[in-house]
Design a protein that fits this description.
Layout lengths: L2 H56 L9 E5 L2 E5 L6 H14 L6 E7 L4 E9 L4 E4 L14 E5 L3 H7 L2 H61 L1 H5 L1 H31 L7 E5 H12 L6 E6 L6 E5 H17 L6 E10 L2 E8 L6 H5 L22 H12 L2 E7 L3 E8 L2 E2 L3
Parallel strand pairs: 8-10
Antiparallel strand pairs: 1-2, 2-6, 3-4, 3-6, 4-5, 7-9, 9-14, 10-11, 11-13, 12-13
Helix pairs in contact: 1-2, 1-4, 4-6, 6-10, 7-8, 8-10
Length: about 425
């Protein structure tokens, strides 16, 4: 994952988080404002009806203005212009609150103009209609009113929150989603740091290997070409083993370096038109010497064809797949077939073997880095699990498709689908 992609991801993630927080906060405040207005309207309806019933009971006329005054968010004063009977007022309040479905507790008090104080204050539980006395401070008195009562809703905020359940739940889910996103970003950055450390270590290690490998090659060539070594079959064989194992080690180092380049997106393809038949025929003849018992055969398409590819990487891809076919063929007689064919104007390259086969579960992870097909209790198949990962990435870089079909115990067939080719240059 490149640094530029990480930066874009962080930028888009940050903008998304800001947007979600802004929208969620806006709708939460908007919904609270709407619910508050609905609450105020319902309270006004209740208090107006109570005032009208009190006026009818006392046979008086209500004031035309300032009948209901909202002194704060949960506190109202009602000017009725007549004396108020506390039990009657309390009963009217209970009835009208139930009619408007205002299921929240309230407190009320009546102003006594003779004593110049708020009296008969009760706290009323709307659920079971229980009441208990309560005291009111002098700050709730009003000099411009004579006959009035006041009402307060101490549970107003809880009542409004109860009506915001869905909004609050959605906000909580949004917060959880943001936290999960932030945690995911933290994990990605942590994994990226670990991946960079791993890649730097592998790069440094493999580059350090290149110098001794080159030195061993020079030394082994000198020893192998010495006349005394050639005369001694045992020494000649040892020299050949050193050269072969050194070459194998060099191939593995090159594979690791190529994988590191691909992960950095720094691999460069030097494409050219190559003769597919001649190239595959040369590869098959060179690889056939690895088979002691059995055969490797090349069946070319009848028409001569050319493909546009990086020849070095193309040869590596075919050699990797042939090498796998030979390594995972545990039969006494190894049979490997390389063939080309035409299908829907595409060139297909198929490599088929009669090896141990690959289970459906393993096929899903076959092209993953470091994955190796299990060979049971035997551990004679060597490698890092990078070959097919390299093959997949080179095919992807060329715009080709690679697929596999296999059956356990019957063999495996790899297919490379090449959409671009020519019959003649």
């Amino acid at each position: 994952m490149s640094n530029s992609f990480i930066r874009r991801l962080l930028l888009l993630g940050g903008l998304s988080i800001i947007g979600v927080i802004f929208i969620q906060s806006y709708w939460l405040l908007k919904t609270w404002d709407i619910k508050d207005k609905e609450f105020d309207q319902s309270v006004n309806i209740v208090l107006r009806k109570v005032a009208q019933r009190l006026a009818a009971y006392n046979n008086t006329v209500l004031p035309k203005t300032n009948l209901i005054q909202r002194k704060s968010s949960n506190y109202y004063a009602i000017n009725v212009n007549s004396s108020i009977d506390p039990p009657i007022l309390e009963e009217y309040l209970f009835q009208e609150m139930n009619n408007q479905s205002l299921n929240t507790d309230f407190e009320y008090a009546i102003y006594d103009c003779f004593n110049d104080a708020l009296v008969y204050g009760n706290y009323c539980n709307i659920t079971n209609k229980e009441t208990k006395p309560t005291k009111w401070n002098k700050q709730y008195k009003f000099d411009d009113l004579v006959y009035y009562f006041v009402i307060r809703f101490p549970q107003r905020e809880n009542f409004l929150l109860a009506n915001l359940n869905m909004t609050v739940v959605s906000t909580m889910f949004s917060v959880l989603a943001i936290l999960f996103f932030l945690y995911s970003i933290w994990v990605i950055l942590k994994q990226k740091r670990l991946s960079e450390l791993q890649r730097d270590f592998i790069n440094n290690m493999t580059h350090e290997f290149k110098t001794p490998i080159a030195s061993i090659k020079i030394a082994s060539d000198v020893i192998a070409n010495d006349e005394k070594t050639k005369e001694d079959k045992r020494l000649s064989r040892y020299a050949q083993i050193i050269r072969e194992q050194n070459a194998r080690l060099n191939d593995q180092v090159e594979k690791v370096l190529n994988i590191a380049r691909m992960e950095k997106d720094s691999i460069e393809l030097k494409k050219e038109w190559i003769n597919l038949h001649e190239t595959l025929d040369h590869i098959v003849k060179a690889e056939a010497v690895k088979i002691a018992n059995g055969y490797m055969r090349y069946d070319p398409v009848e028409t001569e064809a050319y493909i546009y590819t990086d020849k070095l990487h193309f040869v590596n891809v075919i050699c990797n797949m042939i090498d796998n076919a030979v390594k995972y063929c545990q039969n006494e007689n190894i049979e490997v077939q390389v063939r080309t064919s035409l299908q829907n104007s595409h060139m297909l390259i198929q490599i088929e073997d009669n090896g141990i086969g690959i289970s459906p579960e393993d096929q899903k992870k076959l092209f993953d880095k470091f994955f190796r097909v299990s060979t049971g209790d035997k551990h004679d198949v060597k490698g890092f699990g990078l070959g097919l990962f390299y093959v997949k990435n080179i095919c992807r870089a060329h715009g080709w498709w690679i697929s596999v079909s296999s059956e356990v115990g019957k063999g495996t067939t790899f297919t490379i689908d090449i959409p671009e080719f020519k019959y003649k240059l």
